[in-house]
């Protein structure tokens, strides 16, 4: 039996299609997140000069603050410009932008506090999720963050189901295209 030109081409390509890696308990390309850096033993304390009142204000950072406050220490600043955050390690993935892959930060999380914010809820530590470079979900209290985590977990399960289906479809396709062509062009 003869192979159609398409099935011969597909059969020739089969060896060039890489096999999906297996055995990684975290998924194909995922690895466990590194342990979060240990926060400093004692939060940093420093002072600044309130730009409006001229008063010296003593401030103690939130536990684990990773922000460099050197541009504020001892200087005249607006109180609302003083805040703390803890930014986790970023995950970067290649995203096609204008036809070319470009590395973007995805799913970064920040714990932030703005003690003089005009939004009372921001005066206590809250979470911010950067979904993709410069696209944020802000102002998440612990319940809100858990809601987002649960939503993402559901989406990941859907992606895992798609992955299983993709493995099945690829295998079926590979087997079907490797078979000889029957008369009438059926593959």
Please give a structural write-up:
The protein is an alpha+beta fold and 187 residues long. Helices cover 25% and strands 27% of the residues. It has helices at residues 5-14, 142-178, and strands at residues 45-50, 56-60, 76-77, 84-87, 91-97, 100-113, 126-132, 135-140. The strands form two sheets. Strands 4, 5, 6, 7 and 8 form a five-stranded antiparallel sheet that branches. A hairpin with a 5-residue loop joins strand 1 and strand 2. It is elongated and about 90 Å long. It starts with a helix and ends in a 9-residue tail after the last helix. The model is unreliable at 1-33 (pLDDT under 50).
Please tag this protein with its features:
187 residues, five-stranded antiparallel beta sheet, three-stranded mixed beta sheet, 8 strands, elongated, 2 helices, disordered N terminus, alpha+beta
Structure summarized in a few sentences:
The chain has 187 residues and is α+β, with helices and mostly antiparallel strands. The chain is built from 2 helices and 8 strands; from the N terminus they run αββββββββα. The relative contact order is 0.13.
What is the ordering of alpha helices and beta strands?
HEEEEEEEEH
Number of strands: 8
Task: Give the biggest beta sheet.
Answer: 5 strands, antiparallel
Measure the end-to-end span.
12 Å
Strand content: 25-35%
- Sequence stretches where pLDDT stays below 50 over 5 or more residues: 1-33
Class computed from helices, strands and strand pairing: alpha+beta
Mean pLDDT: 82
Instruction: Assign an overall shape.
Output: elongated
Helix content: 25-40%
Cα radius of gyration in angstroms:
27 Å
Please count the helical segments: 2
